[in-house]
Design goal:
Radius of gyration: 22 Å
Oligomer: single chain
Largest sheet: 7 strands, mixed
Helix content: 40-55%
Number of domains: 2
Order of helices and strands: HEHEHEHEEHEHEHEHHEHEHEHHE
Strand order of the largest sheet: 7-6-8-9-10-11-12
CATH class of the largest domain: Alpha Beta
Shape: elongated
Structural class: alpha/beta
Strand content: 15-25%
CATH superfamily of the largest domain: Response regulator
CATH architecture of the largest domain: 3-Layer(aba) Sandwich
Length: about 325
């Protein structure tokens, strides 16, 4: 069928306008708020993954998207002010991680959509959402299932450290206590002795790790916390100084010198968070978007750190590793 040229031009023009309308809010650049408990350097891989996810969906920073960044540099008491700032700016969506930041946002607004890039605690038990399938309110996104992977972390730590018998579980005192309970239970299932030690601030790190060493701990399991992640380099340095083999939550710890980690891929979760932002900017309601769980988990091992600790990582552990730093 031959379509007259003027009609073809009209049709093509209509399609271009329609596609543009679906790609971004009509007549406006989308404004996104982004809150991180860390700093741009520590969060570089996660931020780049998030940006990649947005670009793949047609959202280009500096073109049809503007991002208002707020970096806490480990000072979580700044979250309420960050939340107030972004609400005042009337951004279209806000992305954040961790219960402290998400609670600050929920207290600041019940109307602006909030996307959780990472929540390691159970968001339902934390009171952040009504259910995973039907979040309700203005919050949705991604949440991990730490209590389900902690047993694997302990098993890997036991395989990596010969004759392991005493483990210290390190947690941040503002972290969900259920994770500490699950970790202690996982240790005891393997017939190991567990001691839970808590910290409140960075100044507690050294004294707590010294206590772990003096108590005869042969390894440390660091429970997930945005606070630990924001100060991970201090923690890693002290674990090495006190000669304590330590297992962490994310591979970023291992890249910075930690011995080993097992957990979800944080960059992958941030990349997936971009799809929530995309759907919300195109009209979806957060309350209608189910919260997803991660489906990609990584084991990372730093052989340089193992050598410094006098450890030889067994082949059976190395075989399972997704990333090995030599």
């Amino acid at each position: 069928m031959n379509i007259p040229r003027p009609l073809m031009i009209l049709i093509l023009g209509f399609l271009v306008v329609t596609l543009a309308a679906h790609a971004q809010p009509v007549g406006n650049v989308a404004r996104l708020g982004y809150i991180s408990g860390a700093d741009p350097q520590l969060a570089a891989s996660s931020l780049e993954a998030f940006r990649q996810g947005l670009r793949a969906l047609g959202w280009i920073e500096g073109q049809n998207l503007r991002i208002e960044y707020r970096w806490a540099h480990g000072e979580f008491e700044r979250f309420p002010q960050f939340a107030a700032d972004l609400v005042h700016l009337k951004v279209d969506v806000i992305v954040a991680s961790g219960p402290a930041a998400l609670r600050a946002l929920q207290q600041a607004t019940s109307s602006i959509p909030i996307v959780s890039a990472v929540v390691l605690e159970d968001p339902v038990r934390e009171g952040l959402v009504t259910s995973l399938a039907h979040p309700g309110g203005n919050l949705t996104g991604l949440a991990s299932q730490y209590e389900e992977i902690v047993t694997k972390q302990i098993e890997l730590l036991a395989e990596a450290v010969p004759k392991l018998s005493r483990v210290v579980i390190l947690h941040h005192r503002r972290t969900d206590t259920a994770t500490s309970t699950a970790a202690a239970a996982a240790v005891e299932k393997l017939a190991l002795t567990a001691r839970v030690l808590g910290v409140s601030e960075v100044g507690d790190f050294e004294g707590t790790l010294r206590t772990a060493r003096d108590d005869g701990a042969e390894a440390v399991l660091v429970l997930p916390s945005p606070f630990f992640n924001a100060h991970r380099r201090v923690l890693i340095t002290l674990a090495a100084a006190y000669h304590l083999p330590t297992c962490y939550e994310f591979k970023e710890y291992v890249q910075d010198g930690g011995l080993m980690s097992y957990g979800p891929s944080i960059p992958d979760m941030f990349r997936r968070a971009a799809s929530y932002v995309d759907r919300i900017l195109k009209g979806a309601k957060p309350s209608d978007l189910p919260i997803e769980r991660p489906d990609k988990f990584e084991l990372a091992i730093n052989l340089k750190t193992a050598e410094a600790l006098g450890l030889t990582i067994p082949p059976i552990v190395l075989f399972q590793a997704d990333k090995v730093i030599r």
